[in-house]
Every structure is written in C-alpha cells, then in structure tokens.
Amino acid sequence: MIASVQSVALTGLAGEIITIEVDIADGLPTFLLLGMPDSSLHESRDRVRSALVNCGFQWPQSRVTVSLTPAGIPKRGSSFDLPIAVAILIAQGVISQESVEGRLFLGELSLDGRVRASRGLVAALISAHRSGINDVITSSESAPLITLIPEVKTHLVRDLKEVVEFILFVDKRKCLPWRRSNKNNQRTL
After folding, report:
1. pTM
2. Under the phi-then-psi rule, with left for phi > 0, alpha for psi from -120 to 50, and beta for the rest, what region is 75?
3. Is a pLDDT exceeding 60 seen at residue 126?
4. d(CA 43, CA 92)
5. Which of 50, 150, 168, 175 is the most exposed place for a label (fewest CB within 10 A)?
C-alpha cells in the first residue's frame, strides 16, 4: 500500500504543497528518499526512526521508499519529519489513509518524538488555505503564530503519540453513530 500525506515546501516567502508518498516493500531494510531533498532532509531518516521507536511504534524492517512530489521543487529543512512519520504509520496500517485526507502536516521531530516548530509556518498556512486545505497539524510551539491565519483550523500537538491519538479519535468519531443519552435527552457520541 502506498500512503500519502501533504505538507509544504518553502520557496522564498511562498510555499508549495508537497505530497509525501511512502511505500514499504519487501527487500533489504533500506530508506530511499526521492524528490530533490537537501542534506538535512536526508537526516530525517534517523530522526523519524528514533521518534517512531521512542514513541512505541515500529520501524519497518524492509525497504522504505519516500517520494516528495512534485520532484522539481527543492525541499529543504526538517519540517518534513512529521509528514514522513505519519505516512510510514499509514503504510504500516496504524492509522488510515482516509483519516489524513484534506490535512496538512508540518513539523520537525526530536529523537524522543516531540514535534518541534518549523520555519515559515505563516507561509505554509497561507499556501494550505490557497490550495483548499484548511486543516493543519503542527507543533504546539507554534501557538503564537496560528492566529494570524484564522481561516485555517490548526491542531497543535506536543509529540508523535498525540498526533496519532488525535487522528484515531477524529477517525473514530466519524464512524460512531449518535445516540440519545438518558439525561436531558442530549445527543452524545
């Protein structure tokens, strides 16, 4: 299964929507990164692996191919760590592909799984909004900046576990039927 997640690459003061695709296939354990990544993006393998393992998830013991498209746009920095980790979790079946549709992920991962703020958040939020993406998951360190673009619903998270819990909770809410509670005839989940 090929998993895909959206993020933003900064090009000057603007941002371009980037799709991160992950394929986990049989073969020797390797990590291949495609799509004009810079050196700090090549280091993401080690940050993502450590973050996944230290948050209690598994690192795939097979061939992991990560493609950042469109390939012609240079990708810089560590803000792709979070979307790469989320795409790996989708490819492993931890979370569903449907639960991330219409969402953008942005953030650097520390080795213990904390989500760190990324440069260019305002440009990323503007790019997301212009592209019709109005749901962004990013670091809680970015709280002061999110009020600048009120049209975009920004979910602030502390670590990778919290990202997964949020996605699973939202995914579960979509599937749960409404029922009447016994008290005050209110609707509940």
Report:
1. 0.88
2. beta
3. yes
4. 21
5. 175
